Amino acid sequence: MSRADLVSLLPHLVLALGAVLVMMVIAVRRTHFMVYVLTCLTLVAALYFLPDIETLPHEVGVLFVVDGLGVFNTALIVLAALAVAVMSYAYFDSREERTGEYYVLFILATFGGCIMVISGHFASFFLGLEILSVSLYGMIAYLRKRERSDEAGIKYLILAAFSSAFLLFGMALIYAATGDMTFSGLSGYFSAFDELPLLVTAGLGLVVVGAGFKLSVVPFHMWTPDVYEGAPSPVAAFISTVSKGATMILLVRFFIAIDGFRFPVVLTLFTVISIASMVVGNILALRQQNVKRILAYSSIAHFGYLLVAFIAADELGVEAVNFYLMAYFATMLGAFGVVTVLSDGERDAEHLDDYRGLLWKRPGLATVFVVTLLSLAGIPLTAGFVAKFYLLASGVGTNQWLLVILLVVNSIVGLFYYIRIIAVMFDSAKEGELRPAGYVGNLAALLILAFLLVWFGVSPQGIIEVIRGLVIVG
Amino acid sequence: MTLIIIIGILLVGGILAWIAARWSEVASRWISLTAVFVNLVWAVAILMSNGPSFDLSGSEWLIRYDYPWIGRFGIGISVAADGLSLLLLILTFFLGAVSVIVSWREIRDRVGFFHFNLLWVLAGIAGVFVVMDLFLFYFFWEVMLIPMYFLIGIWGHENRRYAAVKFFIFTQASGLMMLLSILGLYFIHGSNTGTYTFDYFELLTATVGIRTGRWLMLGFLAAFVVKLPVVPFHSWLPDAHSQAPTAGSVILAGLLLKTGAYGMLRFVLPLFPDASRDLAQVAMALGVAGILYGALLAYGQSDLKRLVAYTSVSHMGFVMLGIFSFNEQALQGVVMQLVAHGLSTGALFVIAGALYERIHTRDLTVMGGYWSGMPFMGFITLVFVMASLGLPGLANFIAEFLILNGSWQVAPVLTVLGSLGLILAMAYSLRIMQKIFFGPPATAASGLHDLNLREKVVLVPMTLLILFLGLFPQYVFGASRETVRDILGMVMRSQADLLQNINDTP
To answer: Does A460 touch chain B (CB under 8 A)?
Structure first.
C-alpha cells in the first residue's frame, strides 16, 4: 500500500482505530461521558482527515474508489453519525447503565457505511454492508429490558441475514457469468451485452433484493415500521439515514458503472419498485397513530421518490441523489432528534398524543419539528423543497412523466399525515405523561439541523456548487 | 430593489412583531400596522410618481431588479412591477392594514405568532404579484400557504382544523401541477435554445408545440382555477372562508383569490396564447357556471360568512368569463373586478366579524331587526350589499358591466346566461339586509352597540373607496391599460402568426 493509498483511506482508518480505542477504554474505566467524548473526537478526526480534492479520484487496489462521490458521502455519513452520537448520549444516559459498548458498535456501523460509499468491488461492498448490519443488530436491541427493542433486534437480524444471503447469491451469479467482481471490470462486460443474459439478470435481481432490503423499498419494507418503533430513537435515526444512504450511493455507483438503465428489464424493475414504494409508503402512513411508524413509512416513500432521480442516472440525476440524501439526512435526523428529546426513561415519545399542544408548551422544539415536517413534505423555504425540486427536474429532464406525476400525487397524499402531526401540535396544550430530561447538546444539534434545513432551502447555491464540484467533476 | 425592500419590510416586521409580543401585545399590533402602512404609502407613491393621476399609458415595467439566486438552475431573484402589479400591491397593503386593525380586539391569544403569520401571508402575496421568475413565483405561491394554514387552523372557528387542512391540500396539490408545468417549460426552452432559465421574459419567447403547450397550460391553470376558484374546484373555499378569523377571511377573499386571476393574466395568456384560445369557450362556460352556481348556493346559506364566501365564487366567475373573452374592455373589467371585489367582500367579512363579536353567531336565522340598534352598521352594510349586487355608481357595477360588454362580442349566449347572475346577486344580497337588519327583531337586538371608532376607521375608507372607484374608474383603467394591451397583444400576435403559417403552407 502506497502512502497515497493510506492518506486517501485515513478517515476510514481513524474510524476503525476509534472503535478499538473505545473498546479498550471501556475495559479500563466505564464512564459514559468519556466514551461519548471519545466517539465524538473520532468522528471529528475522521472529518478532519478527509482527503484533499486535488488527490481525487484515487483508486486503492481494486477494492476502493476514493472519488468525489465517495468523499462527499463519507463526510455526510460522519456528520450524520455525529448528530446521532449527540442524541445517543442524552438518550442512553438516562436509561441504561451499560452504555460503553453501544459506542463501539456505533463507530463500527459508521465505519461500515463509509466503506460502502467508496467500494468499487463486490467484496468491499459486502464487507461494508455486513459490518454495518452486524453492528446494527446489537444497537437495535440495545435496550434489553424493553420487549419491543428485543423483538425489533431479532426481526432485523433474521431479515438482514436473509437479504445478505440473497445478495451473496446474486453476486456469485454475476461472477459466474462474467468472471469479474470489480465494478470497473463489470462495466466492460456489460457494455458488450445488447441484452442481459438470463444468468446476469437473475444475479442483478438478487442483488437488488439484498440492497432493496437495506433501502427498505417496497416490497422489501415489512421490517421497517416494527424496527423503527422498537429501536431506540437515535438508532432509528441512524438506520433511516446512514444505513439507507450508504446503500443508495453504492447502488448509484454500481448501476452507473454498468450503465444498467440501458436494459429495459432493469429500468422496469426500478420503476416498479419506485412506484410501489411511494404509493405503499404514503398510504400506509395515513392511518398511523405512532410518530415513529409514520416516520418509518415516510422514509419508505422518500426512497421511492429518490429512485426517480436514481433512474434518471444522468449528471443531473446523480447530483439530485446527492442533494436529496443530504436534505433527507438533515430532515430525518431533526425529526428523530425531536422524538429523542421528548422521550423519557419509560418510553419513547411516539404517540401522536405526546405532541398535543407542543407548539405552546415548548415552542422552540415544536418549531424545529414543524420545519422538519415541512421539509419532509417538500414545502418551500426548507431543504426538502429544493430536494424535491431536484427530483422533479431530473425526472422531467429525462421524460419520465409517469414517475414524475406519481411523485406529485404522492407528495399530496404525504401532506395529509405531515399536516396532521403539525395540527396536533397546535391543539390546545394538555399535561403530558412524559418527563424528559433536558440536554444542551441535543438541543444545540437540533437547532443546527433546523438552521441548515432553512439555509439550504433559502440559499442552496453554495452546497449545490460543492456537490457539483465533487460529484460531477471528481 | 424597492420591491425587495417592500417584501423585506413585511418579513422582518413579522419577526419583530412575534418577538415584541413577549413584552407587549400592543407593540406587536403597532409594529404590524406600521409595516403594512409604510408599504401602502410607498406603493401608492411609486404609482403616483410614475403616472400622475395613476395614468401609466406608454410606460411598461417600472421597477425591475434582477439578482442571480440559484445559478445552477438559472433561477434569479427577478422582480418587476407594472400597473397591474402595483394596483394589486396597493390592494394587498390596504387590506393588510384592514386585517391588522380588525384583529385588534378579536385576536387575544398568541398575538405575536398571529401577526407573524399575517405579515408573512402578505409578503407571500406581495411576492406573487411582482416576481418575474417562474421558480420564484412558485416559491412565493407556496410561501403564502403555510402562514394561511396556521391562521385558519389556530385562530379559526369551531371546524377550523378540517377547513385548514382542506385549504392546504387543495392549493398545494394544484400548485405542484403548476411546478411540473414550469419545469416542463424550463426544459423545453432550455433544449431548444441552450439557455436554461426560469426568467419570465426569456420564457415568453419559448416556442412550444401545440399539444405540449396544452398540457403545460393545464398545469398552470390547475393552480389558478383552484385559487380563483372556478367551479368545480371551489369546494375548499366556503370552508376556509367561513372558518377563518375575520382577518383571515378578508385576506382569503380579498387577496388570495386575486392571485389566481393574476396568474392567469400574467402567465397563462402570455405564455400559452394558442392553447388559451383553444380553451376559451370551455373556460368561459366554466366561468358562467361559477356565476350561477355560486349565486344559487349563496342564496341558500344560513351562515353569513359562508354566504359571502359563495358570493365570491359567483363574482370570480365573472373574472373567468372576462379573462377568456380576449378583448380590452373585458380585461379592464376584470382588473376592476379584482379591486372592487377585494374591497366589497373584504368589507362584508369585516361586518360579519363585527357582528360575530357582538352576538357570537354567524347564523342568519337567529338575526333580525338590528337596524334600530346599529343604524351606522346597517348603512355601511347596505352600501356593500349594493356593491355586491352591482348597483351603478359603485365599483363592482363598472367591472361587471365591462366584462359582460366585452364577452358579449365573442360569446353572446354565455353572456346572457352570465347576466342572470346579476339577478341572483340581487336576491342573495337583499337577503343579507333583510335577515340581519330588518324583519322581526331577534331576542338580542336591543343592547347592541353600533360600530366603534376602530371599526369605523376600517369601514368608512372602504366605503369611500368603493364609491370613488365607481364614480372615477379611470384611475384603475389608466394604471392597468398598458398591461392589458400587452397581454392582448401577445395573444393576438400568436393568432396572427398562426394564420400566417396556415396561409403559407399550401
So the answer is: yes
Selection from B227, B220, B223, B234 nearest residue B290 by Cα: B234
Confidence (pLDDT) at A140: 94
pLDDT, position B500: 77
pLDDT of residue B446: 66
pLDDT cut 90: percent of chain A above it: 69
C-alpha span between A137 and A132 (Å, rounded) = 9
Query: Which residues from B are below 8 Å from A when comparing CB atoms?
Result: 69-73, 110, 135, 138-139, 142-143, 145-146, 149-150, 153-154, 161, 164-165, 168-169, 172-173, 176-177, 179-180, 183-184, 186-187
Question: Which own/partner pairs from A157-161 qualify as long-range (CB within 8 Å, at least 24 positions apart)?
Answer: A159/A213, A159/A222, A159/A223, A160/A133, A160/A136, A160/A213
The closest CB to that of A408, out of B73, B168, B177, belongs to B177
C-alpha cell at A289: 397513530
Please answer yes or no on whether B169 and A381 come within 8 Å at the CB atom: no
Are B110 and A360 inside 8 Å of each other by CB? yes
User: What sign has the CA pseudo-torsion B141, B143, B146, B151?
Assistant: negative
All structural domains of chain A with their residue ranges: 3-473
Residue to mutate among B155, B180, B187, B243, with most A CBs inside 10 A, is: B180
Q: Could you tell me if B180 and B113 are in contact, meaning their C-beta atoms sit under 8 angstroms apart?
A: no
B453-475 pLDDT per residue, tens: 999 999 999 999 999 999 999 98
Q: ipTM of the predicted structure?
A: 0.85
Which residues, 6 or more positions from A194, have their beta carbon under 8 angstroms from its beta carbon?
none
Q: How far apart are the first and last CA of chain A?
A: 22
What is the arithmetic mean of pLDDT over B302-309? Answer: 94
Cβ contacts of B159 within 8 Å, gap of 6 or more:
B239, B243
Query: Is the pLDDT confidence value at B199 over 50?
Result: yes
Q: How far is Cα of residue A217 from the mean position of the Cα atoms in its chain?
A: 13
Which parts of B57-144 fold into alpha helices (H)?
83-106, 111-130, 134-143
Please indicate if any CB of chain B lies within 8 Å of the CB of A379. yes
Choice among A437-446, B147-156, B269-278 with the minimum mean pLDDT: A437-446
End-to-end CA distance of chain B: 52
The C-alpha of A226 sits at a distance from chain B's nearest C-alpha, in angstroms, of 29
User: What is the full DSSP assignment across A171-240?
Assistant: HHHHHHHHS--BHHHHHHHHHH-SS--HHHHHHHHHHHHHHHHHHT-TTS-THHHHHHHHS-HHHHHHII
Contact between A247 and A129 under an 8 Å Cβ cutoff? The reply is: yes
Q: Identify the pLDDT of residue A474.
A: 44
Q: Which of A379, A416, A468 sits opposite B142 (nearest CB)?
A: A379
